[in-house]
Each structure stands twice: as structure tokens, then as C-alpha cells.
Amino acid sequence: MTTSTPPGAQHPDVPGWRESRPDGGAPRGGPLAALGRAATAVDEAAATMWAARSGAELVATVEAVAHLRAKLDGLELAVAAELEVSPAGQQALKDDGWASARDFLTHAAGGRRRSGPATARLARRVQGLPSVAEALADGWLSRTQARIVAEAIERLPQDVSLRDRAVALMLDEATRLCADDLETVGHRLVETLDPTGDTARRERELERTERSAHLNRSLRIGFDGLGGGAGRFNGSKEDLLLVSTVLLSLAAPQPAEPGSCGGDGVCADLQCRTLGHSGRDLRDHGARMFDALVQLARTAQSSGALPQGHGGVPQVVVTMDHDDLRDAVGRATTTAGVDLDPATARRLACDADLVPAVLGGDGSVLDVGRSQRLVTAAIWLALVVRDQHCAFPGCRRPPVMCHAHHVVHWADGGPTSLANLVLLCGTHHRIVHSTPWRVRISTSDARPEFLVPGSTTWVRERGCDPPGERERRPAA
Fold first, then answer.
1. I need a surface site. Which of 130, 235, 345, 401 has the fewest CB within 10 A?
2. For residue 172, what are the contacts with CB-CB under 8 A and spacing of at least 6?
3. Closest residue by Cα to residue 154 from 170, 141, 142
4. What is the rounded CA–CA span in Å between residue 50 and residue 112?
């Protein structure tokens, strides 16, 4: 791959540095030739078919790569330190059009603008700590650990004996600790050896970094046009700890009754049938955290605590042609300009927390909402009293995680009444809309029951049965 260089730069390409520079600047043999042989060896290892290797070999390979990376980091820092002070190195950089060694280091590593200065700074520090440089060269100390040791030592009093003992202690700890824990050791070491000056410095440092993190806070959500999207956010530790604590409280696994998916492979995991679903929550931690965030938003929306605009709480408005909505064809669009497939639009129109804006053939708005579609507080309370939680067989997700599902779709003329509604969590709401599972309200006792795909027997959630009829049974 060719990278951009300043005007006049004459950097060798890969074949060149594996043999000698095309301009003859580097002799055959020497460090460049050695690095070329190392690169060839890495290429040979990279060509391995890893799927055919044993687990032990995979583990050993990762360890070997980490060992080699540390050695290369040590080599880079040693050369960078010399490059900054060498007249010949400075002249070579000038001839190639670089304003400074730091700019060149940023470019060479493909890093951010601050990465070059950071590399130069670490190179100088490591050069003054021979035992740290040796640990890097031996491959057992990572670059991150070396930076942590160097930064801690720099904050100590200028006592050679004291610093030597501190370096030895931190290197010993580095053989057992990850970088985070090693950093804690460094802080405690400085606090112990310099109690009068470090506390104030750390407080100023923390205040500065936390203030910077807060000022740079952001949250961005983008849609990819392929049915999904992605988000990214930054913030201070205090704010992120609050968000994390709340989401974790909502992200606990939600086991279901074994076999509640009916063995049809459409439970929370599309491979449910293959896995022999035992009832455990098949979502990974990331999926549960995302679901917790969505649940938090739904809870806030339904609580009435959000700022109101034009007389109501914020709601998602979905626009779709009336005939397309009824026939489940075409596409829908939100006010944010996000396109939705017809199945998703019908499910959202079914949800009592979203407002569909239905268009006529000429594009005019025929209806926004419909009073009979929106579930009132009284109907919701009655629905919760009747169903208690998600009514899907085997599910126990509470009402706060559920939607009011129209048995006969609102777009098909279904009324918004207790006799046409059922509590379904988000997962089972999607299943009912997108799979052969069917739901109805029993004519015998006005309670929801479900038809398992491929079966003729209607079953119901045991918790929804009247007292004395708690076993799953065929509907009358």
C-alpha cells in the first residue's frame, strides 16, 4: 500500500526496505535487511489457515505476537530517540520535507496528530530508564506498561537511588498486573514517596481531564439505510458510570420457560432450534445493554415525565400510504427521514406508543393517530391487570418492557379495546408480526392464547389463566 508523503519525500516501498532503498541510501544487510526478513516471516505466519490449528496453538500464537510487538515497540522507541538528536537524522528528515521528527513519527505510524509527539516523549523517557528499555527489548513489557512506568517515575523526586528502586518495584508488578492495575500501583507509589506534592497535582490533573471529558461529551446516532444504524457517545466518568449503572440494572438475563419458542427457531436467537433452547436468555451482554437502553427510552416516554410539545409527550411519527400499510407493501418514512420496511411499519403502527400518519393516494394526510388506536391509561391498566406481564407462553418480562399489541391490526380496522389487545415484550411482538405464531383473545374467558406454528392447539401463558386453571391447556 502506498501512503501519501510530503513533496520531495523519497521513502522506500515495501520491496525496497526488504532489500535496499532504491536510491542506495541503505546498504544490503544491516537493520533494514533484518527487518525485511522479519516481515517475510510474519507473512508466512499470516498465511496459516487458523481454523485448522489447535486451541493451544492459537493461544500460543497470540502470546508470541504480543511478545514480538513489545520487541518492535522497543526498537521503534530506541530509533525514534536517536532520530530526534542525530544531526544526520534531522538532515534526512529535512531533505524529505518533514518539519520535525514528531511530524514524521505521526505519519510513519498512521496515527493521530498527537501520536508523534507522544512517541517522541516516551522515547526520551525510556532512554533514561535502561531497565525499562531492556524489558521492552526482551518482549515481556508492553508499550502501554512502559509508558505508565515512565510517567510514574517522572513524578518522583530527583533521587537516583529512590527512582531505581521504584523502577524495579514497578517492573516486578508489571509481570503480574494489567496496565490499569499497574497505573494504580504507580499512583500509590508516588503518593507514598512524595506525599506533599502529589495529591494537589493529581487533583488538578483529574479536574482538568474530567472537565475536558465533560466539555467533549457527545452522542451521535446514524442510520445505514440497510435496516439498521449505529451510535457512539463520549462523556465524563461520572456521567458514564451513571448511565452504565442504570443500564446494567435493566440488562440482567431474562430466562424464559424451556421450549417457549415452540422449537420453531424464532425465539430471541434465530438458531434457537439448533441450540436446543433450554430457556436461558440467548442474548449476549451487548444485546442486553442495547435492549436496556431501548427499554429506558420507552419507560421515559410512557412515564409522562418528558417535556411536552404541542400538548403531548414526544412520539415517533411514521408516514405511509394507507393502501401500502393495509397490504404490507411499499415503505414508510419517519419524520427523521429514516426508511422502514412495510413489516416494521405495520408493527410500529400496532404499537400504542407510536403515531402513524396515513396518506391518501394524492399524498394528503388522511389520519394522524386515530383516537381509537391510542391506548388510554384506563385500558392500559386493565391490560396489565389481565395479562400481568408479556403474555407469550413462557415469557415473564414485566409490563414496563411490553407493548400493547392489536390482535386485529389497527390498519385492518381492529379496535383499541381490551378485547383486541395483548401485552407482548419487544422480542415476542416482533415474533408475532414476522413469524407463523398467531394470537387471539379467547371467546370463553377473554384471555390471550397462542397458536404454535405447525400445531392446531392453542396454548396460553399459565399466569394469565383464571385461578384454578394454571396449567397450559388447549383453548376451549
1. 130
2. none
3. 170
4. 32
The pairing of beta strand 354-359 with beta strand 316-321: parallel
3 state SS of 141: coil
CATH 1.10.30 segments of the chain: 372-476
**16-22 long-range Cβ contacts below 8 angstroms, 24+ apart:** none
What pLDDT is stored for residue 347 in this prediction? 63
The SS3 assignment for 228 reads coil
Q: How many Å is the maximal CA-CA distance in the chain? A: 94
pTM of this prediction exceeds 0.85: no
Nearest of 171, 199, 196 to residue 185 by alpha carbon: 171
Taking the chain (476 residues) in runs of 10, the rounded mean pLDDT of each run is: 38 43 54 87 91 92 93 93 89 83 87 87 92 93 94 83 90 92 90 69 70 80 77 80 82 64 43 50 83 82 58 52 58 61 63 49 41 62 81 82 82 76 86 86 87 83 41 40
Question: How would you classify the pairing of strands 339-340 and 354-359?
Answer: unpaired
The DSSP call for residue 64 is H
Give buried/exposed letters for 20-38 (b at 16+ CB in 10 A, else e). beeeeebeeeeebbeebee
Alpha helices by DSSP H, 227-284: 237-250, 272-275
Beta strands in 229-338 (DSSP E): 229-234, 316-321, 332-334
**How far is CA 305 from its chain centroid?**
28
Q: Give the end-to-end CA distance of the chain in Å, rounded to a whole number.
A: 71
E strand or H helix that includes residue 220: strand 218-223
Sign, CA torsion 311/312/316/319: negative
pLDDT at 198: 60
- Distance in angstroms (rounded) separating the CA atoms of residues 130 and 146: 11
Q: Which helix (H) or strand (E) holds 402?
A: strand 402-406
